[in-house]
Write a structure and sequence with these properties.
Strand order of the largest sheet: 13-12-11-14-15-17-16
Radius of gyration: 23 Å
Shape: globular
Structural class: alpha/beta
Bound molecules: S-adenosyl-L-homocysteine
Strand content: 25-35%
Number of helices: 10
Helix content: 25-40%
Distance between the termini: 57 Å
Oligomer: single chain
Number of strands: 17
Amino acid sequence: MFADSVRSLHREGVTGDLGVIFDRRDRFLAIGLYDATSPIRLRILHAGAPEPLDEAWWRRRLMAAVERRAALFGPDTTGHRWIHGENDGWPGLVLDRYGTTLVMKLYTAAWLRRIPGLTALLSATLAPDRIVVRFSRNVRDAAAAAGFPEGHEAGPAAGPAQVPFLERGLIFEAGVLRGQKTGFFLDQRENRHRVGSFTSGARVLNLFSHTGGFSVHAARGGARTVTDLDISAPALAEARRNLEANRHLPGVREVRHEAVQADAFEWLARRSPPEFDVVVVDPPSLARREAERTDALDAYGHLVRGALRRLRPGGRLVAASCSAHVSAPEFFGVVRAGVVRSGRPFAEQATTGHPPDHPATFPEAAYLKAIYLRLEPAGQRD
Ligand code: SAH
C-alpha cells in the first residue's frame, strides 16, 4: 500500500512494525510490514479475516512457498529459489538455496528486526548448514547500523565466498557473499538448459556471459567453441572456473573456450565476419526506471542487429531481457523488427518467461522474457 493512500494513522509507526489497515468504517482489511520512509508504506502480509501472525502462521507461510517448489527439482538441481518476494506472500524478501547454504536477501529495512526470528524458522524447517543474509543497496546502511553487515552469517556456521551447487547436473559456484543477486542468476536456469539442447557442433557466442552459465550448458550440449564476452574480468575468471569444474563431461572437455573482456556494444559495432552458429544476448536490466524505457528499446535493437551480423546462415539468436519496465510484447517486437530489417528470412522458435521457482503473480512482477529465432540456412532464399 502506497503512502499516499493512507488517510490517517492511529499512532506513529516505526519501520518494521506490523501495521493494520482498517477501512472507513473501522473494519479490518489487512496487516503488513510498516516502512516509515518508503513510498510503499505497508507491504501486505495478510488480508481477509483477522488472524494472529504468530510462529505457526510464519511457519505455514514458509512451508507454502517450499511446497510450491517441492516437485520442481530432482537431486541434480540444488540451486534454486525458495521464496520469490511478494509473489510468494513475502514482500521484499528473497530466499535462495545453493546446496546446503541458504541466502536470504532483504529489499526493505522493515525486515531487519525479524532476522533472528527468520533465522530460527529457517533452521527449524529447512535445516541448512549455513544462512547468509544479503541486503539490497538501499537497505545496507540501516542493516549495518542494526548490526547486520552485508553478507552477514546468521546460521550455525560461516563458510567461503564461493559455494558449489548443481544445475541440471552441471557444477556451478555461487558468489554468496558478494555476487550479484544472491550469487547466481538462477532465473535463467531454464533458458540455459534449453540452449544446451541445440548447441551440438556449434560455435557459440555468449554476450553478457557473466560467470558463463549459458556456456557451460552449451559445452555439455556439444558446442565446438564457446566465446564468453563480459565487461567484468572477475566474472570471466569465474566462467573459466565453472567450465573447469565440469571437465569430467566429454562436451566440456573438448570445447574450445575463449574469454573476451569488452563492452558488448562496442565489440558488436566492430566489423567482423559472421562466425557463430548460436548467439546468446542476456544483458543486465537496461531500464531501471520508466524514463529509461525508450533508450532501453533502442539499445535492445542495437544488440539484436549487432548479434545478427555475427550469425552465420542457419544460426540461432537467443535474446533475453530482464528489464521490468520493458514488457514482453515490446521486447519481442524490437527483436523481430531487428531481424526483419536485416532482410534475412528467419523462423521464430519459442518465447519464454519466468521459471516456475520465480513465479510472477501480478503484472509488475513479470520482468524476464526471452525469444528464440533461427535464420534460414544458406540457399533457401527465394
Ligand atoms: N547470462 C548470465 C547473466 C548475465 S548478467 C547468466 O546466465 O548467469 C549481466 C552481465 O552483463 C554481468 O556479468 C555484467 O558484468 C555484464 N555487463 C554489463 N554491462 C556490460 C557491457 N556493456 N558489456 C559487456 N558486459 C556487460
